[in-house]
Amino acid sequence: MTKTPKRTNRPEAVKTDLLDAAARILTERGIQAFTLDLVARDAGVSKGGLLHHFANKKALLDGLFMREMETFKNDILSSMQKDPVEAGRAARAYIGLDRMENGDEGTPAILRHLLAVMLLEPQLCSEWTRYYWETIRSTGLFDNMTPSLLLSCLAADGLAIWDILGADIIDKKNREQLQVLIEKLTNSSSTEN
Fold first, then answer.
1. What is the pLDDT of residue 51?
2. What is this structure's pTM?
């Protein structure tokens, strides 16, 4: 899909279009097909325009990862504000129990693809892992952490990794039962010492 080239007096709009195109290509075609030329073409920007905003492929992937982590952080914080029960609130928000109740299943596609890229690239793995945990810590997830809350987060992360790997092992009924159990763990944390 070719779009009309953007005017240079809208740098943030161009940058957003580039990140949107990068996300689309990554999720629809995978990292093997991910090129700067393809991203620029899909965004309706010249390759020079892309390079003005992102010096190379790594910088573009970094920008995409940072944007998605900011979205994830904002989702967590928003979910925490809506949760009336203080004990376990941050863990429930991290796990995304409110999203699951609204019909969303698993890890968003773009995060699955970015985490898969991270696993393939040692430099990205090191940098992105550090940034991921800094972002998660900033939500307060580890404040008042209990063994039940930690176990619930680890279980949810395990399910997310299975999503990333495309492991279609758990049927819908078992997945729903696991989600109920995980939610119980986040609610039982207030009784722990």
1. 96
2. 0.83
